Amino acid sequence: MLVRSEIDSNLSSGPFGSYELLHEDHDTFLEGRAWAYHLESPPKTALTSPQVLARISQRMNHDLTGYDLPWDRLSPMLGETAERWTSPAPWLDGHPVWTITDWADADARQLLSLMREIFRFSAFDGEFQAGSVSSDDMAKVRRACSILQEAIPHISANTLPLVRLLLMPDTMVPSWHLMQIPESIGIGQTFLRQASDLVIAESILHECLHEKYVQLRLVRGLLASCYTDDSSPGVLLPWTLTQPRKRIFKVNRTLSTLHVYAHLTAFHAAVLETPELVEHHPEASARIRLNYERGAYLSEALSWREISNHLGSDGDHLHKWLESNALAPARKLARDREIGLRPYPTERWSRRELVSA
Q1: 164-219: pLDDT as tens digits
Q2: Nearest by Cα to 29 from 17, 45, 41
Q3: Which residue of 39, 231, 242, 316 is most buried, as measured by CB atoms within 10 A?
Q4: Tally of CA atoms within 13 A in the half-sphere of 96 that contains its CB
Q5: Could you tell me the strand order of the sheet in which 355-356 lies?
């Protein structure tokens, strides 16, 4: 139990782990930007669905993520009708999350249309349909959240509350986080109904971590002051070479992806140390190998000078924090349990092939 306790405590505290610190700094940032641009500040208290949708629509319009791209903004009046088409979904006590249960409502369709446009812009050729959220779907989310709270209660309490809207439309996309719809994540109904409870728990944590990183990016010095994606080198993800599309991530996205895989590795390590979750241990043993090999490779890549030069001081600290508080404890647990963990094998490629200018 020592590794589990160490992981849960260390990854839920300090400038990178604490919900309270991040939430306060993020709201201060939003208030400051609103003051600078003579905008209304998003509501701080957002517990009811009208408050949540008002905050999300206001943030989306103010953040201007994708302002130069061809999708419409959300109506600033979205929160006024939210009670008609939303319902609470299982999440954490004291931190409700809302989901859409009536996609036929015109205001709800704004969100569905926006998701379609964003994914179409990203070259996704599938479809998003309204679908219908069932009681079984809600029960699946509840069981997944219970796994998270059982294995990593402090990490869950410092990560899941950053998300206020859970979208569950009918689509083949497994799960997603869209910067254009802040403080929200999505899980496709097909994936939700077919995947195991453990994998759904992992997916919820995965997408919430993306939201956490986006907020960290705004209020921590993760990247060099002169950083731009255009000037950043790229890191090849070698496991994508067997997939339909090869992927190369710039330094910002490499750090963001490490943030996810390191936490998921820690999550499965904690599951393996939780006797109450013994039924999930075989699957967790497989999932920890997958997440660790990718996380360890990305951690190594971020230590290469041509990559690390693009990190800010906080980014360098975040990298080391994840290595020492997530990946290293997982290695210790794996040795004790004789679970083979190793970085993704890259012997066949030279550094020049793994890093693009």
Answers
A1: 999 999 999 999 999 888 999 999 999 999 999 999 999 999 999 999 999 999 99
A2: 41
A3: 316
A4: 15
A5: 248-250, 234-236, 355-356
Q: Comparing C-alpha atoms, which of 196, 207, 238 is closest to residue 349?
A: 238
Give yes or no for a contact between 134 and 87, defined as CB atoms under 8 angstroms apart. no
Q: What is the CA radius of gyration of the chain?
A: 20
Long-range Cβ contact pairs of 247-253 (< 8 A, separation 24 or more) = 248/356, 251/223, 251/227, 251/302, 251/307, 251/310, 251/311, 252/217, 252/222, 252/223, 252/227
Which is nearest to 166 in space by CA: 74, 241, 240, 101? 101
| Sign of CA pseudo-dihedral 184, 255, 238, 197 | negative
Name the token pair of 84. Answer: 């008609």
Is residue 272 a contact partner of residue 264, using CB atoms and an 8 Å limit?
A: no
pTM of the model: 0.95
Do 34 and 42 form a contact (C-beta atoms < 8 A)?
Answer: yes
Q: Please say whether the beta carbons of 100 and 85 come within 8 A.
A: yes
* pLDDT tens per residue, range 274-296: 999 999 999 999 999 999 999 99
**Domain edges within the chain:** 17-220, 223-357
Structure tokens at 332: 């210790």
Instruction: Report the alpha-carbon distance of residue 307 to residue 317 in Å, rounded.
Output: 14
